[in-house]
Amino acid sequence: MFKLSLALTSLACATAASAALAGDLCETTSARKHIDDAKASAHAAGYTNIVRMGEYQGCFEAIGRYNDGSVFEVYIHPTTLEIVKVKRTT
Predict the structure, then answer these.
(1) Is residue 13, in this structure, part of any structural domain at all?
(2) Which of 21, 67, 75, 76 has its C-alpha lying 20 to 30 A from 59's C-alpha?
(3) Is 32 within a domain?
(4) CA dist list (Å): 90 to 52, 64, 69, 87
(5) Which residue range forms the structural domain that includes residue 79?
(6) Global pTM exceeds 0.85
(7) ∠76-78-79 over CA atoms, to 5°?
(8) pLDDT digits (tens, 9 = 90+) for 34-84
(9) Has residue 39 been placed in a domain?
(10) Is 42:62 a contact under the CB 8 Å cutoff?
(11) pLDDT digits over 9-42, tens only?
């Protein structure tokens, strides 16, 4: 009986921990803005060569290229339209 209780407790803890790690980058309960507004926000911040817009982990995602050819990924909060993360790859 003790082994079963220990196993169930371990499983519950592991499940709770994985759920916490899988949280969205841009969690929100408010109304989301339109994706075109997010693109305009990225343009205003200087990310003008956008080739694709989408959604990732609850954020709007703008993907494009810098003038030197490297790729940027800009993550924009869907309600505040603030840039929350920028990733650059060469």
Answers:
(1) no
(2) 67
(3) yes
(4) 17, 12, 7, 10
(5) 24-89
(6) no
(7) 120
(8) 999 999 999 999 999 999 999 999 999 999 999 999 999 999 999 999 999
(9) yes
(10) yes
(11) 444 444 443 334 446 889 888 899 999 999 999 9
